[in-house]
């Protein structure tokens, strides 16, 4: 129980601390509203489930040592660069002529954002085993349980961030100039995240 308590506290602190995922949720919910942020959060947690499964089955370790790692990083960085471009060229909601994105599109953004980042698997490989007894007979189930707890905490924290970003979006939508400035900031964040992914 002591180890589990420490794990929960550590997971909460990690989820709250500024990072690519919560910055992504914040910028997207500030641009497109609370619902978009929640759907992206669900997508991110789905991506976490993919990484947790890979770590539990040992696939992530093998994956890190192959050319597929580089391919995944390039794909993820390309997608972030694409998001930077469409965000930079996006019109303010007060003058927008194109239809809004569907809920599934935001959900897919979250999945792609998380699942194409190999640093998440590396994090779980380094983080989760510290809280698993060395004499355990159920390593896979232990990884899945701890990973699920981490994903649940991330879901709650990121949902709170999405709610805050949605509140901000309601204020920003009244000013096209501020929206354009936010678009530039968000595009810059995505571009920096792409560079960070490639350099990792």
Give the tags.
single chain, mainly alpha, 9 helices
Break the fold down into its secondary structure elements and pairings:
Elements: H1 2-16, H2 20-32, H3 34-57, H4 59-64, H5 67-88, H6 103-115, H7 118-127, H8 139-172, H9 176-199
Helix pairs in contact: 1-8, 2-3, 2-8, 2-9, 3-6, 3-7, 3-8, 5-9
Describe it.
The two termini are 35 Å apart. The protein has 200 residues and is an all-alpha fold. The chain has one domain. It has nine helices and no strands. The protein is globular and about 60 Å long. α3 crosses α7.
Uncertain regions spanning at least 5 consecutive residues: none
Q: Name the overall outline.
A: globular
Number of helices: 9
- Cα-based radius of gyration, to the nearest Å: 18 Å
Mean pLDDT: 79
Largest sheet: none
Computed structural class: mainly alpha
> How many E-type strands?
0
| Overall tally of domains | 1
Strand content: under 5%
H/E element order? HHHHHHHHH
Helix content: over 70%
First and last CA, distance? 35 Å
Provide a brief overview of the structure.
The protein is 80% helix and 0% strand.
């Amino acid at each position: 129980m002591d180890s589990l308590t420490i794990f929960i506290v550590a997971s909460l602190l990690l989820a709250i601390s500024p990072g690519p995922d919560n910055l992504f949720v914040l910028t997207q919910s500030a641009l497109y509203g609370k619902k978009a942020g929640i759907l992206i959060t669900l997508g991110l947690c789905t991506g976490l489930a993919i990484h947790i499964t890979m770590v539990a089955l040992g696939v992530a370790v093998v994956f890190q040592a192959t050319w597929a790692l580089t391919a995944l990083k390039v794909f993820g960085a390309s997608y972030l660069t694409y998001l930077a471009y469409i965000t930079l060229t996006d019109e303010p909601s007060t003058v927008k002529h194109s239809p809004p994105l569907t809920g599934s599109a935001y959900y897919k953004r979250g999945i792609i954002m998380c699942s194409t980042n190999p640093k998440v698997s590396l994090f779980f490989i380094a983080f989760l085993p510290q809280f698993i007894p060395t004499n355990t007979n159920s390593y896979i189930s232990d990884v899945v349980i701890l990973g699920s707890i981490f994903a649940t905490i991330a879901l709650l924290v990121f949902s709170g961030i999405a709610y805050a970003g949605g509140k901000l979006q309601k204020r920003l939508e009244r000013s096209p100039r501020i929206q354009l400035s936010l678009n530039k900031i968000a595009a810059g964040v995505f571009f920096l995240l792409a560079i960070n992914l490639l350099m990792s």
